[in-house]
Amino acid sequence: MTTYVALLRGINVGGKKRVPMQTLRDLLTGMGCESVRTHLNSGNAVFTHPKADADGLAAELERAIERELGFQVTCLVREAGDIRRVVDANPFAGRDIANPRFLVTFLDRPADPAAVADIDPAAYAPEEFVLRERELYVYYANGIRDSKLAKVLTERRLGVVGTARNWNTVTKLVDMAGA
Question: Is residue 174 within 8 Å of 167, Cβ to Cβ?
Fold first, then answer.
């Protein structure tokens, strides 16, 4: 059995795309997942499954949500070890970074580094970002709401789909997954 983490994008925000966590747990169980647990009310789940195909599980979960709830939700599924890798690769490790303002955007596939090569970091300081593999680490020093950097680090620019989690959530998911 492989341990996975599911990250659902854009649910339970502003009353739209409501996915109760019990429904999410039931859908995952119906897909043959075991030891299903959710974290918060924002679409984070940890589970085990015998299938070694994270992308296939993500697609199956997307279909199950659409069939059960009648709307589309982008789902990213990663192996627990991959989430551990994200934590271990933290480019801001050892620095005094305010966790709620430090986000990791999980991407559906690797983004081309050339997509961000023309962004001048000094123009956005004290905000910072690092693009690695299938993750974008961003520190929004003054919060994301008024961030200039958030306006340029878009899916359109990166050419990928992503869903962000704050650092506290990322580390909690690693703990829940036992990774």
Answer: no
- 33 vs 2, 49, 57, 60, 62, CA distance in Å? 10, 5, 10, 12, 15
Residue whose C-alpha is closest to residue 97's, from 134, 133, 128, 131: 128
Q: Closest Cα to residue 126, out of 98, 106, 154, 86?
A: 98
What confidence tens digit (pLDDT) does each residue in 25-45 have? 999 999 999 999 999 888 899
The pTM of the full predicted model, rounded to 2 decimals, is: 0.93
CATH homologous superfamily of domain 2-82?
Answer: SP0830-like domains (3.30.70.1280)
CATH 2.60.40 fits 88-177, yes or no: no
